[in-house]
Amino acid sequence: MTTHSPVALRELSGSQLFVVRSGPQRHSVMAAGEANEVQSTLRKDPEAFLAKSIIVCEGASEVGFARGLDQWWGSLGATSFLAHGGAYVDAGGGSPDNSLIRGTALQNLGYRVMVFVDADKPSTAGLPEAFLAAGGQILTWRPGLTLEDEIFRHLSDQALDALLAKAETIVGAELMNAHIQTKSQGRVTLHDIKAERLIQGYLPATRELLGAASRIRNSGWFKSLTTYQEVARDIVGPSLQNADPGFMAVTNQLWTFTSAP
Question: Are residues 72 and 131 in the same domain?
């Protein structure tokens, strides 16, 4: 049997699923296999097996960020990633190895794959190189930085105004202030940052502090797919033209992958 239904795929085991690829001389049929990375993708993101191109994201934040930028570009007239036959896979966080291993498994089945991960944790030596050598793409930030670090360090002051306002509506000023004080060892408050903004804008040290305060484990200001989708669509996308060139280089790589037919 064949199916175009992710509902049907979700009920299968990897040993029951085969991927068929057409070639110039003959078709090839590949068993999806019973590896954990295949089975977990079948359960959580079965749509990926019906796609042509897949972005394997480190976690929900990256899924939301990529989806939000795709929606922003769509509002400008671009064809969406989903319309191009794309899909997103949430690797569930942790080490970048999780995303690379999952991406490799999907790539071995003939999918076009990009892995989207933070750059604050090292991956196992040889794993990224093998993935790239086999034709995969890796989207990551500058060394040592996470998604939160990048958006607070490298967007405009006006974008940071919007990010702080968004965070206040989600987690509240009290929790934001507590996180800022924790990460500054009690030296800086949210009020101090707002006062500084009025006088001289957000200084580099403040931007670094905000990135760290916004991503405290299990208490992140934007840590959900829906919230990051809104952040990317409503704040990051409209601010790209004024963003740091290094930040734009990453989003341009994402655009190139998602806009390919």
Answer: yes
